[in-house]
């Protein structure tokens, strides 16, 4: 996770995003899941999205064209907005907590 990349967080086709990596040997269905930051902000993952073995899915805050490997939420404000760091929780479509990742900014 790269907190607060340079430039506008919600610029079209790029900007702030969370990267999900599949480290298993099978395709993982992530469609309908979502991410929450420490402040309770929500990023969704579109229905039908999967991550093949060893691949990535970038879940963007801002607008863009959805495609394999990238899902855009179309938000108008940044997501990872805590100045000292943040925690991201990943939930499956059944609302089960599946993973948590935190980072600190020095």
Percent of residues in helices: under 10%
Q: Report the C-alpha radius of gyration, rounded.
A: 13 Å
Task: Give, in order, the helices and strands.
Answer: EEEEEEEEE
Q: Report the sheet-strand fraction.
A: 35-45%
What would you note in describing this structure?
The chain is an all-beta fold and 106 residues long. The protein has one domain (1-81). The protein is 0% helix and 37% strand. The chain has no helices and 9 strands. The mean pLDDT is 89.
List keywords for this structure.
106 residues, mainly beta, four-stranded antiparallel sheet, three-stranded mixed sheet, 9 strands
Short description:
The chain has strands at 17-21, 28-29, 34-37, 42-44, 50-51, 56-60, 70-72, 85-91, 97-104. It is mainly beta.
Helix-strand layout with pairing:
Elements: E1 17-21, E2 28-29, E3 34-37, E4 42-44, E5 50-51, E6 56-60, E7 70-72, E8 85-91, E9 97-104
Parallel strand pairs: 6-7
Antiparallel strand pairs: 1-6, 2-5, 3-4, 3-8, 8-9
């Amino acid at each position: 996770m790269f907190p607060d990349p340079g430039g506008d967080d919600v610029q079209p086709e790029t900007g702030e995003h969370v990267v999900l990596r599949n480290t298993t040997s099978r395709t993982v269905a992530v469609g309908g899941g979502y991410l929450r930051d420490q402040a309770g902000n929500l990023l969704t993952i579109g229905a039908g999205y999967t991550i093949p073995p060893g691949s990535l899915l970038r879940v963007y805050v801002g607008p863009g064209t959805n495609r394999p490997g990238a899902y855009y939420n179309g938000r108008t404000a940044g997501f990872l907005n805590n100045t000292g760091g943040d925690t991201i929780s990943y939930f499956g479509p059944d609302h089960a907590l599946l993973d948590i990742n935190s980072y600190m900014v020095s």
